[in-house]
Amino acid sequence: MDTIAWSVAAPAIGSTFLASLVEAVEAFTIVLAVATLRGWRPAAFGAAAGLGALALLVILLGPLLDQVPLHLLQFVIGVLLLLFGMGWLRKAILRAAAIIPLHDEDAIFASETAQLAGVTDRRHKSLDWIAAMPAFKAVLLEGLEIVFIVIAVGAGRGLLWPACGGALAACLMVLAIGVAIRQPLAKVPENTLKFGVGVMLSSFGVFWTGEGLGIPWPGQDLALAFFVLMFLAVGVATASVLRRPVVEVLR
Amino acid sequence: MRIVGEVLSELFGMFVADARLTLAVLCLVAVVAGLVGTIKLGPLLAGGILLFGCLAIIVEAVAREARARGQR
User: Fold this and answer.
1) A24, A72, A131, A231: which sits with the fewest CB atoms below 10 Å from its CB?
2) Does A242 sit within 8 Å of B58, measured CB to CB?
3) Are A65 and A155 contacting, i.e. CB atoms less than 8 angstroms apart?
């Protein structure tokens, strides 16, 4: 892979790695809550079923990507990336500015555990599939975002496999650390990651949308670096201008 | 069937976290596409409108949410 190709491949792999890290941490918190309350068997069963459902979706819908002309694919993916990336960036700026509270894995773990405890109190203990359901849903719903990001940053330039590699590495990392420490991964700086990924995805969105519209970007692939700098600068500046005292947010 | 509904709602939420932001982005893309298609706008100008339009939209969306939460 030459230097120019790496200028797109590296951000693609980096984006899928970081985005998958965020999503995998969120899914792991719920799987861990199931494991803590009902044991690892239903948790692993639910997670595996979620992965299976995701794989089925990819196998069924993946081949359709080859049927779409490249410019149309870049345009559609570019617009979807703009919507998705700017949504993430908006939320990350609001959290960085302390306008909305940060995502708290410990609080989510506690609430999920309490909810599951309520269900097991009400129903008989043999209903393990009920405990497996939240793990299944968490893996499926968070996994959907990972699948979209991998397809979105990878399909436009034939980078699907490197993007998959980035996502897989992040998921395996979260799984390995999570299983080793058996606690919610609350120390992961989730909003910083989300901010970075929002910046990257929004930049990819502008890049692919422009390419899809037939806009030849000055500097070609290197224009992506300029977009990243612009989104980052505007995001950081907006968060600084709007920053609120933390006490006010907690009220 | 409930899980299918939840998957669809998750997919919808992925792209429509803020309806006004979504609408603004779609309008911006439509305007740039129209300008490129009809008056053959140059790449620098068309790209500039797309990039700076997106930056303006994100600032507006964040400022609007901050204002709304400030009023509560």
Assistant:
1) A72
2) no
3) yes
